[in-house]
Structure to design on (205 residues):
């Protein structure tokens, strides 16, 4: 969404990961990623929970569990605002926040997929790493929300998205994510080890 005038709906209308949670124009192409054969997925969908008052087309329960769980690479404070030009120089520009008062140093970037550079085949793209990197910008829930499983760690709200163009910025972002994932144990966030590399288990509400 490229819409800095968008506003959040009232609490309880929809979870932050849903487009319904924002009043404004939805204008990104995330919905089309399944049709892009050149894309490289970097995250794994685990599960979602949504509780309705009556039916699946109706109102959500105000006190219900509306969560989305994704496993993938995460990094804190590495991606900054793309529009204002005020992001710290050490941060990678590419974030598009849906609120003007977000402190980008407190945000987390969750990598979802790589969008192949125009004219590059999927096999060549995978070998050469010619990807624009896209994902979600997240804020930790404060105060923490206790989930049904008794866990309040790794719980976030979505505060928008990021897109980092292929080049030095994507190298910097991948390097930052690699270092953050390597120190996963020290973060206190839920994580798993996949073939020698750590990935975080993120709950978005």
């Amino acid at each position: 969404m490229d819409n800095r005038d968008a506003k959040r709906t009232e609490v309880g209308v929809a979870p932050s990961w849903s487009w319904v949670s924002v009043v404004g124009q939805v204008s990104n192409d995330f919905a089309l990623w399944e049709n892009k054969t050149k894309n490289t997925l970097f995250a794994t969908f685990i599960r979602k929970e949504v509780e309705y008052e009556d039916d699946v087309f109706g109102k959500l329960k105000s006190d219900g569990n509306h969560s989305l769980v994704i496993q993938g690479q995460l990094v804190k404070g590495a991606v900054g605002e793309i529009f204002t030009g005020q992001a710290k120089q050490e941060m990678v520009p590419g974030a598009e926040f849906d609120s003007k008062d977000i402190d980008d140093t407190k945000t987390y970037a969750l990598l979802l997929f790589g969008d192949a550079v125009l004219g590059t085949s999927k096999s060549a793209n995978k070998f050469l790493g010619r990807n624009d990197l896209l994902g979600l910008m997240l804020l930790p829930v404060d105060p923490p929300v206790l989930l049904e499983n008794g866990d309040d760690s790794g719980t976030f709200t979505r505060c928008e998205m990021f897109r980092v163009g292929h080049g030095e910025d994507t190298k910097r972002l991948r390097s930052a994510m690699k270092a953050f994932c390597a120190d996963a144990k020290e973060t206190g966030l839920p994580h798993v080890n996949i073939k020698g590399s750590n990935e975080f288990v993120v709950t978005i509400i």
